[in-house]
Amino acid sequence: MRPLDRPPKSAGEINALPPLENTEVSAHIQERGQSYAPETLVYLMREAIQLKKTLLVEMSLTFLIGRPVAGRWEGGHCERTIASLARAYGFDLNRDLRLAFRGRCMVALLDAIYAGRTRKPFWEERFGKAFKMACVDAARSLDLPGNRDMEAGVTREGNDVIDVDNLDPDELLIDDEVAKRLSQPYHEAAVLRGIRALPPRQGEAVMLAWMERHPIEGDADDTVAKIMDITPRAVYKHLEKALPTLQANPDLHAIWCGEA
Fold it and tell me: In a 10 Å sphere around its CB, with 0-12 CB exposed, 13-18 middle and 19+ buried, how is residue 46 labelled?
């Protein structure tokens, strides 16, 4: 493999890192990660993946992509590109399209990181350009008429009538440990792939109820039922339909059961 042409800032940051096997590395990165170049964070994620240092993977990814705060993503090195392209393609005008586009960008990012530096060295050399190219590909794919309509909720499941008979809502509330595992940043690519494979309304219910942890019903304006403009029982039915599909996915089954 050819030597990487890292940006000087990133090269200096990597040279200053303590050995990643050491216990003090997490504190070192926690203190400095906010200022790290994105190429450094990609390097750290790839090294931590090889070392199976889950906490370091999660920490580096959070500095790379930011974190959700009050319904918005703040910090990180990705959101400006996502927001700019969402406006350019008109995805920002529809909540479902905006979420679908961001999800596709995150899947592309994580796929590239997990591919490793031998296959994807450019991500450790010019992250901004590599990420923008991946997001443009995601935008072009989503902009195809069939994909845009599906993600925007124009195309529904074949039967949009919700049968609420024999429905037990308590069986459709995942526990905190499962929710925590599903929401880990290093599982995001697999989880988003599984959710995107669902019919749009099922995927929306899963994202809101299980990933973003909105209450399903109640008087607040941010309940899943009010956001989706359907009854709480209809939300539970969408979750009931989605559950076996997600659990049949081998990657998601391993995460769900704590095996990954």
Answer: buried
DSSP conformation letters of 149-210? HHHHTSS--S--PPP-TT--GGGG---HHHHHHHT-GGGHHHHHHHHHTS-HHHHHHHIIII
Which residue bears the tokens 């940043």?
185
Nearest CA-CA partner of 235 in 247, 221, 224 = 224
Give yes or no for a contact between 91 and 101, defined as CB atoms under 8 angstroms apart: yes
Distance CA 53, CA 116 (A): 16
- By residue count, the chain amounts to 260
Q: How far apart are CA 62 and CA 183, in angstroms?
A: 12
Whether pLDDT at 158 is above 50? no
Report the predicted TM-score, pTM, of the whole model to 2 decimal places: 0.65
Q: How far is CA 56 from the centre of its chain?
A: 17
pLDDT tens sequence across 32-71? 999 999 999 999 999 999 998 888 988 999 999 998 777 6
Number of H helices, E strands in the chain: 14, 2
Q: How far, in Å, CA of 23 to CA of 56, rounded?
A: 11
